[in-house]
Amino acid sequence: MRIKVINPNTTSSMTEVIAAAARAVAAPGTEIVAATSPMGPASIEGHYDEAVSVIGLLEEVRRGETEGADGYVIACFGDPGLLAVREIARGPVLGIAEAAMHVASFVATGFSIVTTLGRTRIIAEHLVRNYGMEHHCRRVRATELPVLELENPASGARRIITEECRRALAEDGSGAIVLGCAGMADLAAHIAREIGAPVIDGVAAAVKLVEALVGLGLGTSKTGDLAWPLPKRYTGPLAHLEPFSGGSGAS
Amino acid sequence: MRIKVINPNTTSSMTEVIAAAARAVAAPGTEIVAATSPMGPASIEGHYDEAVSVIGLLEEVRRGETEGADGYVIACFGDPGLLAVREIARGPVLGIAEAAMHVASFVATGFSIVTTLGRTRIIAEHLVRNYGMEHHCRRVRATELPVLELENPASGARRIITEECRRALAEDGSGAIVLGCAGMADLAAHIAREIGAPVIDGVAAAVKLVEALVGLGLGTSKTGDLAWPLPKRYTGPLAHLEPFSGGSGAS
Amino acid sequence: MRIKVINPNTTSSMTEVIAAAARAVAAPGTEIVAATSPMGPASIEGHYDEAVSVIGLLEEVRRGETEGADGYVIACFGDPGLLAVREIARGPVLGIAEAAMHVASFVATGFSIVTTLGRTRIIAEHLVRNYGMEHHCRRVRATELPVLELENPASGARRIITEECRRALAEDGSGAIVLGCAGMADLAAHIAREIGAPVIDGVAAAVKLVEALVGLGLGTSKTGDLAWPLPKRYTGPLAHLEPFSGGSGAS
Amino acid sequence: MRIKVINPNTTSSMTEVIAAAARAVAAPGTEIVAATSPMGPASIEGHYDEAVSVIGLLEEVRRGETEGADGYVIACFGDPGLLAVREIARGPVLGIAEAAMHVASFVATGFSIVTTLGRTRIIAEHLVRNYGMEHHCRRVRATELPVLELENPASGARRIITEECRRALAEDGSGAIVLGCAGMADLAAHIAREIGAPVIDGVAAAVKLVEALVGLGLGTSKTGDLAWPLPKRYTGPLAHLEPFSGGSGAS
Amino acid sequence: MRIKVINPNTTSSMTEVIAAAARAVAAPGTEIVAATSPMGPASIEGHYDEAVSVIGLLEEVRRGETEGADGYVIACFGDPGLLAVREIARGPVLGIAEAAMHVASFVATGFSIVTTLGRTRIIAEHLVRNYGMEHHCRRVRATELPVLELENPASGARRIITEECRRALAEDGSGAIVLGCAGMADLAAHIAREIGAPVIDGVAAAVKLVEALVGLGLGTSKTGDLAWPLPKRYTGPLAHLEPFSGGSGAS
Amino acid sequence: MRIKVINPNTTSSMTEVIAAAARAVAAPGTEIVAATSPMGPASIEGHYDEAVSVIGLLEEVRRGETEGADGYVIACFGDPGLLAVREIARGPVLGIAEAAMHVASFVATGFSIVTTLGRTRIIAEHLVRNYGMEHHCRRVRATELPVLELENPASGARRIITEECRRALAEDGSGAIVLGCAGMADLAAHIAREIGAPVIDGVAAAVKLVEALVGLGLGTSKTGDLAWPLPKRYTGPLAHLEPFSGGSGAS
After folding, report:
1. Interface pTM (ipTM) of the complex?
2. Among residues A70, A53, A71, A9, which one has the least CA distance to residue A35?
3. In which residue ranges of chain C is CATH 3.40.50.12500 found?
4. What is the CATH number of domain C97-202?
5. From CA B196, how far away is CA D146, in angstroms rounded?
6. Block means of pLDDT (10 residues each) for chain A, length 251 residues?
7. Which CATH number is E2-95+205-241 given?
8. CB spacing of B208 vs C213 below 8 angstroms
């Protein structure tokens, strides 16, 4: 099975962290194809960054359909473009926020999300509502660490995040922690040991859920609003994103 | 006051319908600047079309900021890119679905939305929830008319939509109708006379709400998650969308 | 266009503050007719005050209908009698809490309400739910200033309210402030400058929204539950409030 | 124990039906004091009727406080003025819609409301939400019988309502019926026998709940927003409704 | 009327406290039959304890049906087995959490629950949602007192709980307190005097609500999902719980 | 990895269907241990059946903990005892309703549940709410097939269920189907081919989700309310269910 894990920002060092986290949990027969968005923002820290990041993501998924990907992971905690991607994918597609929250709800009656900047908290809160997690998610906590500082050893990111996770357990009454950024993918195991409770990285969670769905023989439903895009004219600089004329969007 | 009304699809004949509807209600001192997206889909009928349409929309807003626009209307009923646009706009920004639903809630305790294809109904339903209109919106009704057929006299669109609006009043217990596509902007007055109840076109509604906000001296809040995008590197074909380095995103 | 702005309490000095706020934002062609309730409580600070205040309000609206009012503003933050007024009005009717909250949701993803006494907070919270603003309104904050103290320079009201607004931004993660009393109508501009974020006074907001609705040719729907009251016998001291027998409630 | 049951409309024949229903279930030591509103509409069939009806109701409650009433029932299915009445009452106060819905939720996992005119359905739906009954109330059904026709033997009201109740069980998956008008108080037992499921009249339900609360030694909380109204000046024709100056609102 | 009050744990000294609270409020003609579960946990402090406790409870209800019980009270704040019990009972069944929350909503617009261990708070929170009390219940507060410590004078339970109730009024803006454990049944009157606000013990509340329902002639609906269990084979150690073959579950 | 799949009813032929469905999707290294409840009802078709079924389930989980089970599947669509089981399990525990709904939400924006008897629909509806699936689940449809009839070829179950699934797609606007009974586990693939949309059997879904969680190194959180049961005395016929005294509930 081939799972394409796409980092929608352009920072390839972050893609490496993501790919490592994906491979660490992949089943023996699973091939992880990691991709970095070929265009757009170096990190995604707001609605604007997120909106622009979707184009590179869509291009990678279109390429994935021709390369034979069996499923996709969108490796940014805002789950940008999730439904748009599902329209052009035959196999299952998981966002890492979606994956992490659902997994957390299976192992605890309440969880907290620990994320980066306060200004992105609203994005997580919108996802909590979209996924029906209002009663499971006790709180979204911002550490005010910029995304790219996660890679900077001098930032103290690991310590700051671990402490915020510890506070979340104590103050929010949560039984599990969801890490709110793909750039934290390498921290989950360490923090779990430190705080003695499940800590969920969405990249790993999404890979395992895509494996599960493919194992069930399930792809994205092509009945209803996730059916292939209607054939129509696309023009201008994005004309190459026009859905394929062969009756389906991307095959 | 200058209000930029942006059609996020590339069909300029639809922009003309939109511009006419906007000008028909604009106050004496209001200048309507209508723009057609320079790229992307000819109509927006799904999550994929919508995601791609955001880029052309953002480019038009960036241009608007340099042209001195006092406010913006996003003239597609899915309100694509609404929060992203707000991040890069100084003045107020209204989506036409948002505008129409709020206005409907001021004149009736319940309304119905009459839209185009069934596959876009889910988009309207998500907006209903995002805007807190679950208790006001009684039902979203699809006519199965493709967007571009609205312009085709042979489609019988006016009659089909009028009949659906009539059924909505009778069956849904609604007191008002929201037209669910920018391409229906020229039908509101006619249908209102036919059915004897308020019929709200989002383009006109959004223009009047932007006028109201500018009249109140209000722009988009630059405190919190709608603040100017953080300065950062954008690369590749979308590098030109990089936020301005002068501390603000688009000025 | 003639907009009747009704202060449902009997304190005419407060009506003057309200009228000034309304006129300050009214468009050139808009005439503001300000009225003070002819009976009932001097201020509205609870469910009982509010219930009694509705009678004077209804009388003023009935008078407005004969005077040719094109729309109405109910200038008390509890929006007393809103749906009852809509039944007897041809034109649009806005409550100031309703207007302020909707406007706030257009310029920020979250807002806080700063109001007077803690005991009226429940009224604001009920309105937040009725208007579908649970996800936009982050918190309702009471200053424990009685309504009539707002007019007393010795009360320090301006300073106290400004500080509460500042705390709201910092602690609630809000991007805008809604002032929770008609008696604060003169403070919005000052506080906005002080805290650097949008501050919304409902009186001004409601006037502009009524202008917008009238500009759209919209009145209150007379289809459904806001139709003219059914003709019937009213007796006793309130017999004069009996709906007109001519088929409509108030014409 | 003395329970004052107030009919907020002015139709004394309806008060008689209400009083009989109340007395039929009252415990041995309970005295039912039935009162008809001294002013206002002959029936309550909309927001406007309801708003006006509150004044007569408040007067009767003020009188009740001096007469030694131990609790109150508001005998109109819209529960007009419920929180206002609670502010000026020492003992417990129940609305009949409130009482009926809560009781229904104790004997079935889902119930339907069968009411009079379609235009009042919105009032019932708002109460359903206020009381947290969204998941218990499966549907509000209108029979289009005007309130005063319930007393007219030629209207066929009993048959029409019984049939609607039967349909409710079959179509809504409900296990119990709530009758949506005080004027139906005499029909509950008959319909229950006919349809073989619990049928709840709010007048009887409210009397028993007030008895229960008084039996528990509970009155309305005077801590928080239901505390006695703040002392203040009331003027004009409603000046006599001014809260008592002795520190409490009505004693 | 005979009301069977069942303590689903096996601690008979707690049953005595419960029985005394029930008898203290019972009407003259009401006989309270108190029962202690014949099996299972000595106290209920988690999902597991609760699940096991249901068997003894069901056995006592089956016995109650043959003994002529007119209604039941489940005297544990988690309301274990509520719907299962309703299936096998002819008369009304109330859980004490259910009873207390509904009663609290009649005397205050907001209440707080003061309970025992933090780990059982989630159970109360689930009930708050099931009963539609999200808007009435302001907060669930844990004292970290184990259930059986409530009977230990050296635990300081009375003082600790009273102080928590006082804080609830001050910090949560609540007008009433719900005691979150059957073992607190004897504290309500004392705490109410101390804090000057309604304090509701669910045992007493449930007894009065069952009396009210029986007084209304209402039993559990046997239409729909609370109908007698379908006849079927039960085997193994719990074979004796097989529903009666005579067409009804337990008669 | 060893996953214990427990059928909480006593019908071993149904366990065989369940076991086959589980093994059909299990990964190479996964051992499926299927167990039939040793006591209680032959099928679960109501709240009472469900409550009683929990005891046998808990016994099988306690045994599973000593046998080295790495995770559990509760193979009844009501997910009986889910949180109780989680308290006494070290590894992850999934209910089949929970698993199926979450999986359905990954492949479609809306799904319908097709279940057995109308009287069990309420159980599914409660789970929909508990799992936050109100916006994803469009409708719960009953076929009125008793559970044990699913095994009877003469019942026409396969055809009846297939037709109901087809109607669900057409009428509910759903993109996927969730089968609402463990006894339907062998029908998913067939129906999916017939209707051309994803059909999800909870048994298979739960097995794959447990595999995913174990693959992520995640067990049930032992922080908070899912921690091991508190040590305490259990007496009577269920004394053997007393939590282990060694500090943990079941090890």
Report:
1. 0.96
2. A9
3. 2-96+205-241, 97-202
4. 3.40.50.12500
5. 24
6. 98 97 97 98 97 98 97 98 98 98 98 95 96 97 93 92 97 97 94 97 98 98 96 96 63 39
7. 3.40.50.12500
8. yes
